[in-house]
Amino acid sequence: MAGLACAEVLSSVGNTVELFDKGRGAGGRMSTRRWQTPIGEVTADHGAQYFTSRDPEFKKLVGEWSEIGIAAPWPPAGAEAWVGVPGMNAVVKQMASSHAVSWGYLVKSVARRNDGWWLFGERGESGPFDAALLAIPAEQAAAILALHDFSMMRAALLARSQPCWTGLFVFDRPLGGLPAVLRDRRNFTWAARNNSKPGRRATECWVVHASAVWSSDRLEDSTEDVANLLFAELYEASGSSIPRPVVATAHRWRYALSAGTGEGALWNNDLQLGACGDWLLGPRVECAWLSGRMLAERCLQAI
Question: pTM, whole model, 2 decimals?
Answer without folding.
Answer: 0.94
